[in-house]
Amino acid sequence: MNAHIKVGHKFPSVKLNTTYSFGLDDQEFVVAFESDRPADFVELIMALRETEASRFTLRDTPIFSYIQKTIHETLDDLG
Q1: pTM of the model
Q2: What is the number of other CB atoms lying within 10 angstroms of the CB of residue 33?
Q3: Of 14, 33, 36, 70, which sits most exposed with the smallest number of CB within 10 A?
Q4: Domain ranges in the chain?
Q5: Residue 18 φ/ψ region, left for φ over 0, alpha for ψ in the -120 to 50 degree band, beta for the rest
Q6: 2-78 homologous superfamily
């Protein structure tokens, strides 16, 4: 985890939220990232995947990307 924290500090524009995933699935925890700079997020993920700790990841789950909008903006986009 120290290596991941060190890598994460190189990307201050990406906010990290971590929580335990009891009852959600078989993972120990879930991480969620927030950023207004998608390129920084992609670079962070690529850098994290190069750490030695990532060699011990049994399976990598999908990444979902969204744009935060208000409910009114979302409804307007839907027409």
Answers
A1: 0.68
A2: 17
A3: 70
A4: 2-78
A5: beta
A6: Apc35880; domain 1 (3.30.70.1030)
